[in-house]
TrEMBL record:
Protein name per UniProt: DUF6850 domain-containing protein
Organism lineage: Bacteria, Pseudomonadati, Bacteroidota, Sphingobacteriia, Sphingobacteriales
Span of domain DUF6850: 63-515
One Pfam assignment: DUF6850
Domain of life: Bacteria
InterPro entries: DUF6850 (IPR049236)
Length: 517
């Protein structure tokens, strides 16, 4: 494990080094001030699209500009999901850069996250595989520590007079999640994904076809330092439960462990239209098939006992239109959509028991006028979860609408301040919950009811961020401050006695420093 971490640190430094000292070819972004490129929302929206679809790294990532930063964030409140945390403290170290060297574009990003969660209950988890049907949990609130290493890279080389680009993208994640109090969850996760693309560039039209392959794993183990809890059945807080479905949990006093083996494969398509110098239209789509196999190691001939196979199909679209208008006006429109359909094969019943569906579509538009940037965004989300044996079923829609305003202030000749304020309103126009009182125990009911109240609650969110930074030709510093506050409205009325319900507020803040070179 440590050797892999050192390799990731080395590659992060290597990519940052070449982003500065590599030979480059200029593009339209090279003349943009570094602070503006990294923190002004009209550039961030293009940068993020290129990171989601890395065949566009040569088009939308600034060359020979690297970022090295640290930031710390804290969150506190009681408006949270059942398996959320009452308090979060997170620190991150990150670096990112891109360069063109000998007709090849290199991009890389390395990050290290360390976080501590105060009072996390009902699930021992890594917080990325949230829809999985199988997991362990306990009623007692635990303190969790998490470490995550991520290394992402993209390489593109264009052959035959830049008409045939070939791209390779690599994503690698290594995570460690553990509790320091009983019951002690210990989760290790690893994910590796490759995407290989071949394209064709024409003066006003470009397209790429991609193949995707990925592999990952989770190793989960729950134990006790105090031996008296290993045979505990009297204190419900220390009893571990195994969820294998949606609400149908059973007590586990031994063999509280499993391995989750993950395989992914898929295809992608990317198109760029440039009808003239003022317009660029990107269209990206992907299909991904993911298969997870939950197993417990044993002494059988096949060396493991199968618990659950979970398969999920994910389809997504990512559209962006950028239009440069007269009088320094700029319009950008983003449309994103995703459909996830998952179902399991439960080896206890030798049949499909759990189904999961998530449909979402979001829209964002930006209008830049001189030093001002106006933003509007909207999203619709639909989630369905069902358990065949218990009959538990949850369905809810969510709608989000928001507005934002950004302005850049000049402070003399050597510094800028970029300020942003925003507001988002969320509500659930349609929702339904059925919980079987006979087939669902107290552990499952607490999760189902609390999540339903949280996901259907209306809320108002406000956010504000400020970025101060120097404005030199190279070697700049920046300081970032962000504050977010969310407050819910009335909960959906339910005829049930609750041990816990979502609270009223959630507050979070971030403070960061970065060096741009």
């Amino acid at each position: 494990m440590k050797s892999v971490r050192y390799i990731m640190l080395f590659w992060g430094a290597f990519l940052a080094y070449h982003a500065v000292f590599g030979q480059s070819t200029s593009n339209s972004l090279d003349s943009t001030a570094a602070l503006t490129y990294w923190y002004q929302p009209s550039f961030v929206i293009m940068h993020d699209m290129a990171l989601r679809n890395r065949v566009w790294i040569p088009e939308e990532i600034k060359n020979r500009s690297s970022l090295f930063g640290i930031r710390h964030s804290r969150g506190q409140g009681d408006f949270k999901a059942a398996q959320g945390t009452d308090g979060l403290s997170q620190s991150q170290l990150y670096t990112e850069g891109k360069t063109d060297w000998r007709k090849t574009s290199f991009w890389g990003r390395f990050s290290y996250d360390r976080s501590a969660e105060d009072s996390t209950a009902l699930r021992h988890q890594s917080r990325w595989n949230v829809d999985a049907p199988l997991y362990f949990g306990s009623l007692r609130k635990n303190k969790y520590s998490r470490e995550i290493y991520k290394l992402d890279a993209g390489i593109q080389r264009a052959f035959f007079d830049a008409k045939l680009p070939i791209s390779l993208d690599i994503d690698y994640r290594l995570g460690s999640h553990y509790s320091n109090n009983d019951p002690r969850g210990d989760i290790k996760d690893m994910n590796l994904q490759f995407e290989l693309s071949v394209g064709h560039n024409l003066p006003t039209f470009s397209y790429h076809i991609a193949g995707i392959w990925g592999y990952g794993s989770e190793r989960v183990n729950v134990g006790y330092k105090n031996d008296k809890y290993t045979t505990n059945t009297e204190d419900p807080l220390y009893v571990n439960w195994m969820m294998n479905g949606f609400g149908s949990a059973s007590e586990r006093l031994k063999e509280i462990n499993y391995n989750d083996i993950i395989h992914r494969k898929g295809v992608g398509a990317h198109i760029l239209l440039k009808p003239n110098d003022r317009n660029k239209i990107y269209f990206n789509s992907r299909y991904l098939n993911e298969e997870q196999s939950f197993r417990r190691n044993d002494n059988s001939k096949q060396t493991y006992l199968s618990l659950n196979d979970y398969k999920k199909d994910i389809g997504s679209i990512d559209f962006l239109w950028s239009r440069q208008m007269h009088r320094k006006r700029l319009l950008r429109v983003v449309l994103q959509g995703q459909i996830e359909n998952g179902q399991d094969f439960n080896y206890s019943y030798l049949a499909n028991n759990y189904t999961y569906r998530r449909h979402e579509i979001s829209f964002k538009t930006q209008l830049a006028v001189h030093q001002y940037l106006f933003e509007g965004h909207a999203g619709m989300y639909k989630t369905e979860k069902k358990d065949g044996v218990s009959g538990n079923q949850m369905e809810f829609d969510q709608v989000k609408l928001g507005l934002g305003l950004n302005r850049t202030f000049r402070l003399g000749q050597s510094a800028n301040i970029i300020g942003t304020i925003g507001y988002t309103k969320q509500w659930s126009p349609s929702h339904n919950l059925y919980v079987s009182e006979l087939n669902t125990g107290d552990f499952g009911k607490q999760i189902l009811y609390q999540d339903y109240l949280y996901d259907t609650a209306p809320s108002n969110s406000w956010n504000m961020s400020w970025v101060w930074g120097t404005h030199h030709a190279k070697n700049n510093w920046s300081i970032q401050l962000q504050v977010d506050y969310q407050c819910r409205g009335n909960l959906v009325p339910i005829d049930h006695t609750f041990s816990s319900v979502p609270g009223k507020n959630w507050f979070s803040g971030k403070l960061g420093v970065s060096y741009i070179y």
